[in-house]
Amino acid sequence: MWGYGPQWGTMGGYGYGYGGYGFGLIHMIFWVVILIAIVAGVVWLVRSMVGTNAPQAGVRRSAGLDVLEERYARGEINRDEYLQKKQDILG
Fold first, then answer.
1. Which is nearest to 89 in space by CA: 69, 37, 3, 52?
2. Continuous segment of H or E residues that includes residue 67
3. Residues of the chain scoring pLDDT < 50
4. What pLDDT score was predicted for residue 24?
5. Alpha-carbon span 62 to 68, nearest angstrom
6. pLDDT value for 44
7. DSSP track, 20-64
8. CA nearest neighbour of 68 among 85, 51, 87, 56
């Protein structure tokens, strides 16, 4: 008969499903981890697609400006000369 004795109800009275030993919590955590992994994968995929196909912001840099910055970094020209030439290049 149901409800009498040491093993009453489903699973011998130890709860629902997996025996009531915390497997319900483990099952829930498992699905939360799966959901987080799916969301992270979608975010990574969208960022990688946008990053490779995104148009370049601004105008292409002048090769002269790159050379000027290299000369300044090497110490071939001083700060005042660098700023003056940079202003000349940029217009």
1. 69
2. helix 63-74
3. 1, 15, 19
4. 75
5. 10
6. 93
7. TSSHHHHHHHHHHHHHHHHHHHHHHHHHHHHHHHPPPPSPPPPHH
8. 85
